[in-house]
Amino acid sequence: MVGRARAHLGLLVLIGLVVMLATLLTSAIAPLTERTADRAIAADVRDAGLQGAVVATVSRPYDEGQRIRDPKAVAELRESAASAQRAMPDRLAAVVRPGVTSLTSPSMHLLDAGPGRYLRLAYLTAPGAAPAVTYTSGGPPGPSVPAAKADVEVTVTTDPWPVQVALPREAADALGLQVGDRVEAEDEQHRTATIVISGIFVAGDRDDHVWAAVPELLHPIIGRSDQLTSVSAAAIVSTDSLPDFQLALPFDDLTTRVVFSPQPSQVRWKQTERLMQAIVSLKTSGSRGSSEVSWDSLLDQVLLDSRATVSAAQGQATVLIVGLLAGVTLILVLAADLVVRRRSDSLVLMRERGASLMGIFSELAAESVVVALVGSALGTLVTWLLVGDVGWRWSLPVLVIATLAGPVLATTRAARAADDRRVPANRSARRAVARARSVRRLLVEGVVLAVAVLTYVALHQRGVVGDGDLTASSAPTWFAIVGGLLLVRVLPPATRLVLARARRVLGAVPLVVAARTSRSAGRALPLLVVAVTVAQLTTAVALVATEQHGQAAGALQSVGGDASWETAPDRSVSAAAAKVSSSAGVRAAAAARVVEGFGLASGSSSATVRLVIVDSTAYQRVLAASPLPDAPQLARLHRRADGKVPALLLGGDRDLRDDLQVRWEDTPVPLTVVGVAPRVGDSTEPVLVIDRAEFESAGVVADPGTVWAVGPGAAAALKSAAGTAGTVDVLTDVVDARRSAPLASGLVRLAVASAVLLLMFAVLGVALAAAAEAPVRAESLGRLRSLGLGRLDVRRVLLGELVSPVVVGAVAGVVLGAGAAVVMFGSLSLELITGQSATPGLVVPWWTSLTVVGLVGTAMLIAVAEAARVGRLPLAALLRGGDQR
């Protein structure tokens, strides 16, 4: 055993290296997949913001007695928060921050300076230190009673009772209020309250999660039009003024909530299902009517959507992994076949001397186990050093194939060598044996075809879900295998046809090449190795290219151009858009009013749409100057008919187009649908596009709040126009953010790693296939040299014989990989990774064909080296004994 291993040490080391490389990648998949899933879940929870918060609404006991200023109001509020915290399940409490308790009022109309000014009062408290604030004038709110009575219960007879509040500086500037101002406010039921401004402050840490409970505290909402400027802001109530707050406003105007913000870093992929169950259980417990706390949260929906995205990414990763394992299996079998070919004589001799098949299998299995374990151990060690953890699920198939391939092939070879069954003498019996052999081959091919059809149907019925659905995920691999088997079937007749044509051509080289190729065309394994590995490589590259192209297209659709500006609706935005359009490096710009979730109704139907009120002429220029699809029907928006405003509608049912009408600021505006709207943004909702001038001619005002710009200078021009108002989204930043997302970047790294390994295996397959036939080629070429074939012709023969099957296999692999992408990418849920509302368009990079060039170059180098070696051997030695290696 030691001598046999030493004689073929190079091939055994090669097998060990293949096992090591395969194990290095496959053992890293499980830990990296889990970490990537954790990062993706955390990113989705972080992006959800307040939508992912768990909110407890605490009912307040109604006091029908005397109006009493209760100094224990703060303690009672904190006890309510603690009670809500205790009611939360432990697994949910472990992933959320301590609750931010708030007592808030609705937005109240300030009566001192006309309409359009609204103020919301809020008391906020959270465990730990209060958020730092710096008072620029005045001080924190104090009690509305003398200091001596602040800590005792006081019966109140004054109505309305004043409450002191502090304003953020932005809110004070927007509302025009100063320290010491005393203003009257009323709620929706026209019940009044007296508000006293005690101070104006600036938040020390604007990112403190406490402020998120009432966003208007840091970001007052300002809306302007020709008729009115509206401001909606918030003010804070202090611990000292909280008892006054409860007296100043009617009981049913105050709402007590505890907001538990999730900690994204604490949410793990494996616990998301249990978290969803806990949240649903918590929400239903509050709806039964017996609890003092009602619960609400969209965190379960956020986790559900995130799980769907992660599951789709894991399914796509499984497609890549299965393709890689197919390439590893084929290359290990091909390497084992070469080892068996080199040991053929010794195996036959062992069998003839009485060795049992089990004994031969056991000896070779011991050898292969050592090689496989050493290679696997080295790969696992490197993975552990680089990643810090290892997974065994995907590495076990590599270990099993590396262990069994050699012993099984060798035992089969030894069994055939010692087969004492006689060859039938008559022709009909031999034909019956040949037919039986053909039937067995057809049966195997039929099973492979049936499995491929099964996986294809499974893929189209349910797509790829998670990393455990091997049936659907293996469909592209089985597609390539069936294509490779079809190639193996077609190639021998094709080579015989070429041989027949070559006999009519003058010169020995074409005839010899055709004859040699026809003889070796029946070897299925080398052709399968090249075709399947190149097909899986092409599929991996196409997957990455398609997703990256889809991410760019989705980002362009989302942004609406090279840059966009979102701000509060204002008449000045139109002038800013005109200025931006004339800036250097800007090809076009358009201002629009975009309203999400706008209610639309017709005579017999209704829907929620994305309403876009835009300067249609400018928007048409934006579409023409960008890669976005053109919309020539925008020109129809200027053709007013029957007193109705023309509109373009995308989506929605057919009945929605009859007697269409929108209500804008309590003014009904009749519409008539004149065409199909372009898709604006990446929403799946129907889109309604109206020309702004035509819309305002109906007697309404629709100030724009969005500007789209196209051109290399669009981002700079919009940032200059925006200043500190609103937000500017830049296309390149959005594309980079989508491509650097955990799932997208993880899939790219996996695809690149598997593509590199598959390319190495394809090159190795070409070399091993050439090495397997090298002794026979050397012997035949030696005889041809003795018959007068020159050195140049020998090189041409070798080039033709080695390059031809490689070209056929590599080209077939590229075609099969591209075909699998065309047929199957629609079922891989790529849009969940690209962030689009539809499946991205397929992209197969042209440079994928360079794989063919690389493999052909490898075959040419082998041919040149083999020609030089054959040329150095003496003719007499070749004639006496063939290859003398």
UniProtKB/TrEMBL annotation:
- InterPro entries given in the database record: ABC3_permease_C (IPR003838), Macrolide_Exporter_MacB (IPR050250)
Its placement in the membrane is given as: Multi-pass membrane protein
Compartment annotation? Cell membrane
Q: Does the keyword Glycoprotein apply?
A: no
- Span of domain ABC3 transporter permease C-terminal: 755-869
Q: Which residues cross the membrane?
A: 317-340, 361-386, 398-418, 439-458, 478-499, 524-545, 750-776, 797-826, 846-865
One GO cellular component term: plasma membrane
Q: Name one GO molecular function term.
A: transmembrane transporter activity
Tell me which UniProt keywords the record has, alphabetically: Cell membrane, Membrane, Transmembrane, Transmembrane helix
Into which family does the record put it? Belongs to the ABC-4 integral membrane protein family.
Q: Under which name does UniProt file this protein?
A: FtsX-like permease family protein
Give the originating organism. Answer: Aeromicrobium ginsengisoli
